[in-house]
Design a protein that fits this description.
31% of the residues lie in helices and 21% in strands. A hairpin with a 2-residue loop joins strand 13 (168-173) and strand 14. It is α/β, with parallel strands linked by helices.
Length: 534
């Protein structure tokens, strides 16, 4: 067979059953032909073969981000960055700059603010000082909360007399709307601030490019604001605006249950598609965010004894949305952060399994952030695949200590998953936090927050387990472990070359490792400026 490309003289982390380390890999077409020593692989090459000298660097299976929002990530890049700011005045200055160059009446969109670093939430009065002619929305870093100005409230038909929606809240002060919108109140309003189809496609292009730079070759896309999101993804994949392979969770941030019901009526189900675009699990939102905090917990927050979070649905409603999908052969999943929400999803899965024909369902729980021992036992028994987000520990960990106290010991409990033989796959949940898989791996094995504090001591895992969770386990979570996720003969040649050895790197430096090459189907789709290929 013709060998188009060989990678030699490296640390080839195969993630095969023995987690073997090789020196070299040969690629034929879009598949891995052979792994072995440099001498063995070079014997397969000829004058036309492209040769990449790894010079001791790591070659891994392409990273699989098992929970990310491509549309949100990309359209955020079209908006105003309110994450990397010095304070509220800095945010308002950036919004004013954008407003000055925007046609009157068009939306001004910001993203990424965090009241924990600003001292307080934004208010409509802050944003009215920017403009009363433009509608303005600034989404909190969690993606579950936003603040809007008076113009935006007017366009959405909201007044001080408007009642709170189910699963959400319009925050008020002295009976007056403050512009702060929680959960479904935010999701509902954002439909008025939706981007155009062209903007969404441009955003997906930007997202795909950034993900390639991070070595991400497959994405389990966790949804956008509306039902048109699935079509936008499919269109972007077909036009090659998105270069990654997509496993699309079938749900939306707005009225997820209703979208699932319509999907069932259409007759489609999990697995429909091809290696580039495939329908994934039916997905419903159960609760809020971990950092808001709006996650639904069994016991009140440590930071607020009067609050235990927000539910989008009750147990009966969750069953009504997801169990019919389960019986039709869908994989099912749900956004579940707090231990009460995780418990609800386990209950839905387990009661539905009693009449389920398949034994290889691989039902998932997105995030599964707060998972105490009794829920771990039930997850293991039911074969559920959790999709945790260890990068949250790095970005939001210090806030978790304030909000949840001792419960941080059971948040994203990766070591417990390993010890209980629970297959888990890591997702970034980007743009909620950084998309970089190396940051996720760093947080998984150190449990350190931005300030260096260890959050959930004892839940650290080995780097081998973290790498597997970002590769082979991601493929398992989408029923594709026979096609990708490890560097083995016959599998798709989706690979990433790092700038150094990941196995010999000081754990504290892992987040600083960068990507030199990203390969999809044997084609080099991203090259760092310093990388040379012969």
């Amino acid at each position: 067979m013709q060998v188009e490309t060989v990678f030699v003289n490296g640390e080839v982390v195969t993630v095969d059953p023995g987690f073997s380390i090789k020196e070299a890999v040969a690629i034929s077409g879009d598949r891995i032909l052979f792994t072995g020593s440099t001498e063995e692989v070079m014997s397969l090459a000829n004058e036309e073969t492209r040769k990449v000298d790894l010079k001791g660097r790591s070659l891994l299976p392409g990273f699989i981000d098992s929970h990310a929002h491509l549309e949100l990530y990309g359209t955020n890049k079209l908006g105003v960055n309110c994450k990397d700011v010095t304070g509220i005045e800095d945010i308002l200055t950036r919004l004013k700059d954008r407003a000055s160059g925007t046609t009157q009446g068009e939306w001004i969109r910001g993203w990424g603010y965090n009241q924990n670093y600003l001292g307080r939430h934004l208010t409509k009065w802050d944003l009215d000082a920017v403009s009363t002619e433009h509608p303005i929305i600034v989404v909190r870093t969690c993606g579950h909360i936003s603040c809007v100005n008076s113009k935006a409230l007017e366009l959405a038909g909201l007044s001080d007399e408007t009642t709170d929606p189910e699963g959400g809240k319009y925050v008020r002060k002295n009976g007056k709307l403050t512009g702060l919108l929680l959960e479904s109140a935010h999701m509902n309003l954002f439909l008025h601030a939706m981007h155009s189809e062209e903007q969404i496609q441009d955003g997906l292009t930007l997202a795909s490019e950034d993900f390639l730079k991070m070595g991400i070759t497959s994405v389990h896309d966790a949804g956008g604001y509306g039902p048109s999101h699935i079509g936008a993804l499919q269109k972007a994949v077909k036009s090659k605006r998105i270069r990654q392979r997509i496993y699309a969770l079938y749900g939306s941030l707005h009225q997820s249950g209703e979208m699932v019901s319509k999907g069932l009526e259409s007759g489609i189900m999990t697995g429909l598609g091809n290696e580039w675009f495939r329908i994934g699990p039916a997905k419903v939102f159960i609760d809020g965010s971990s950092s808001g905090p709006t996650a639904k917990t069994r016991e009140p927050y440590t930071s607020d004894p009067e609050d235990s979070g927000i539910l989008y649905v009750n147990q009966d409603e969750l069953n009504q949305y997801l169990q019919p999908a389960q019986q039709q052969g869908w994989q099912i999943t749900a956004h579940a952060i707090g231990d009460r929400a995780v418990e609800m999803m386990i209950e839905t899965i387990q009661t539905g399994q009693e009449s389920e024909s398949s034994t290889d369902h691989r039902h998932r729980i997105e995030h599964a952030a707060m998972t105490p021992e009794d829920l771990l036992v039930r997850i293991e028994k039911s074969g559920i695949v959790p999709i945790p987000n260890p990068a949250f520990i790095y970005e939001f960990g210090d806030g978790y200590v304030s909000d949840y106290g001792e419960r941080t010991q059971i948040m994203f409990p990766l070591k417990s998953f390993v010890e209980n033989d629970i297959p888990f796959a890591i997702g970034s949940d980007s743009p909620i936090t950084d998309v970089n898989p190396l940051l996720g791996i760093y947080a998984a094995i150190t449990r350190r927050s931005k300030t260096g504090e260890v959050i959930g001591e004892g839940q650290e895992i080995l780097i081998q387990d973290a790498i597997k969770a970002y590769t082979l386990s991601g493929a398992y979570a989408s029923f594709e472990e026979q096609e990708k996720g490890s560097i083995e003969k016959g599998k798709l040649a989706d690979l990433v070359v790092l700038n150094e050895s990941i196995l010999n790197c000081d754990p504290e430096r892992l987040k600083d490792i960068t990507v030199d090459l990203t390969v999809i189907s044997g084609d080099i789709v991203y090259t760092s400026q310093k990388e040379g290929v012969t």
